[in-house]
Design a protein that fits this description.
By secondary structure, the chain is mainly β. 7% of the residues lie in helices and 49% in strands. The protein is built from 1 helix and 28 strands. It has a 4-stranded antiparallel beta sheet, with no helix packed on it. Strands 4-5-6-7 form a 4-stranded antiparallel beta sheet, with no helix packed on it. Strands 8-9-10-11 form a 4-stranded antiparallel beta sheet, with no helix packed on it.
Length: 394
């Protein structure tokens, strides 16, 4: 080989090497290498409380990093926008099935992920089952399933919770004599503009809308005060589209999803479509649980209990309507809830009755799910929340 050819070969080799280094660095810089994952559970002989894991954003592997005890049934969690605090419901009720549950505040150390209990406040109703923090971080909103009510709790500067600034008791019933004799508020969410709070009530077959004032922590019925779904549907969880133009409620009892157009100025929901979450007819023992929109706004996911699957839908960007893409088995029993990480890379399914959290990779083009092979053993997992320490929480 001539000197010229040798030099050219070496130069090309160095260029190739530099290209690989540059590409690798670029991939590493595109997003976080690791996220913290918090899993809410039902405490029992098996579960101690809130479990923490580290999620490898390259492989999807979950590594247990700790557990926080001291709260009974911290089934659902919410992380403050500042990433300094975490809030957990205590899903309990009195001996008469009424009473009140609670919401507990924790200080969150973003470096270690450690939680330190700050204080707790009554949730203003029995069986609190869902909690969120508003966009300003000034209020925690909670839905009480057993009590059929919603409430707002103020967040103090140090993350502690104050006494409720608003508490609204739902009233009424619907057609199912076993499940809908009374109200059952199952979730509460704040719209992207932080002006309205939306509560799905399984017992009423309604999605109630409240005008929300973050500064005051107040909730006032909107006009109109609610949108209705088909009788016997049992609306459970709710999700806004990132654009704020559309919204979706998953109906527990009929295993359907109802799509709405959302008027962000007036807070009005208008039904667009209702579609099944199942590949076949509804069977006894089947129900749904969670619904979430992918961060890209292209896909929607819903969990099927009994069928033990995640239903996958494509979202029409112009109309907001859904079209079925398929179903992915969750690799366990009774997927209560699931979480999609803020980058939209992974979906983590919480299989309540098989004590596992299973990791799936999301295809960014089709929305389909593929199991990574990563599974964490978590006793009675319910809720999955992510903390990206380089950005925000989800």
């Amino acid at each position: 080989m001539s000197i010229v050819k040798l030099c050219l070969s070496v130069s090309l080799g160095l260029l190739a090497c530099l290209a690989v280094i540059s590409t690798t660095r670029g991939l590493a810089d595109d997003g976080p290498r690791e996220m913290l994952v918090y899993v809410g559970t039902y405490t029992s002989a098996k579960s101690e409380g809130i479990y923490m894991y580290r999620l490898n954003m390259s492989t999807g592997e979950l590594t247990r990093a700790g557990v926080t005890s001291g709260v009974k049934n911290p089934s659902f969690l919410a992380i403050h926008p500042s990433r300094k605090f975490l809030y957990a419901v205590s899903e309990v009720a009195g001996p008469d099935g009424k009473g009140t549950g609670g919401v507990t505040a924790f200080a969150l150390d973003a470096a270690s992920g450690k939680l330190t209990m700050l204080n707790a406040q009554p949730s203003q109703g029995a069986g609190p089952c869902h909690v969120v923090v508003d966009k300003t971080g000034k209020s925690v909103l909670v839905a009480n399933y057993g009590g059929g009510s919603v409430a707002a709790l103020p967040v103090k500067d140090d993350g502690r919770l104050g006494e409720a600034t608003a508490a609204i008791q739902h009233k009424g019933s619907s057609v199912d004599a076993n499940r809908q004799k009374q109200p059952h508020a199952h979730s509460i969410n704040v719209d992207p503009a932080n002006r309205f709070a939306v509560a799905a009530d399984l017992g009423l077959d309604k999605v109630l809308v409240y005008r929300f004032d973050a500064a005051k922590g107040s909730l006032e019925p909107n006009d109109p005060p609610a949108a209705s779904v088909a009788p016997g549907s049992g609306p459970r969880h709710f999700a806004f589209h990132p654009t704020g133009k559309f919204a979706y409620v998953i109906n527990e009892m009929l295993c359907t999803v109802t799509a709405f157009a959302f008027d962000a100025d007036k807070g009005v929901l208008k039904e667009l479509q209702t579609i099944t979450t199942l590949p076949h007819e509804l069977k006894p023992g089947y129900s749904t649980a969670e619904v979430q929109v992918h961060p890209s706004g292209k896909f929607l996911y819903g969990s099927n209990r009994g069928h033990h699957s995640i239903a996958i839908f494509a979202i029409d960007e112009k109309t907001g309507k859904l079209s079925a893409v398929g179903h992915e088995p969750t690799g366990g029993k009774t997927p209560r809830n699931f979480g999609i990480d803020p980058t939209g890379t992974f979906l983590l399914a919480a299989n309540q009755d098989s004590d596992t959290v299973v990791v799936f990779r999301i295809d960014p083009q089709t929305g389909k799910l593929k199991a990574t092979g990563a599974t964490a053993e978590v006793p009675t997992p319910v809720c999955v929340k992510f903390l990206d320490r380089s950005a925000g929480a989800r």
